[in-house]
Amino acid sequence: MFDVDLAKCIFDVSFIGKPVGVKKPKSTEEANKPLELSLIEAYYLAEKGILKIFRNNKELSLEELKTVCSSHIPEFDELYRSYREFKDFGFTIRSALKYGTDFALYKKRPGLEHAPYLVKVLKYGQLIEPGDLISWGRLSHSVKKDLILAITHQSGLITYVALKWFKP
Fold it and tell me: How many percent of the chain have pLDDT more than 70?
């Protein structure tokens, strides 16, 4: 997003995106730059009517944008539904691929606090290896975060299971 005034407004209000060249802005004043958006963030803003996406000087419909997102992000529908729900709950969301999970959730925003939660999005009925569950739990514990499994159902319902490492 190259409109700096709109980018600053979006970042000030929702903390969506990252100002180009600023890893973790400590204040919204540092966000006086164009925003870098993930496809999920761009789709969210487009769905809310805040952002229009163009390709070859033609505005993409939400369905066309969803096709683009789905072609680049495996399991886009499941990831997006969880993203939208957490965003609508008021969380600031960042990618957590470096932790082996899908999202890091902040009650406020990066730069002001550490994310208290990591989220792994799964499909209902998806088989997971016990070692994967253990590694997600161990890693989340080692970085002092709780792990949330977001289990997406075909109906659109999402079941959340919070896991906290326990040492007897």
Answer: 93
Catalytic annotation present for 106: yes
Determine phi and psi for 106, rounding to 5 degrees.
Answer: -115, 140
Q: Which of 80, 106, 117, 120 is catalytic?
A: 106
Least confidently predicted of 6-20, 56-70, 84-98: 6-20
Q: What is the pLDDT of residue 29?
A: 66
Amino acid occupying residue 6: L
Average pLDDT along the chain: 87
Residue 161, strand partner residues: 149
Per-residue pLDDT, averaged over 99-123, amounts to 89
Q: Which of 8, 18, 120, 145 is catalytic?
A: 145
Is 167 a catalytic site residue?
no
Q: Is 114 a catalytic residue?
A: yes
Architecture of domain 74-168: 3-Layer(aba) Sandwich (3.40)
Residue 152: count other Cβ atoms within 10 Å of its Cβ: 22
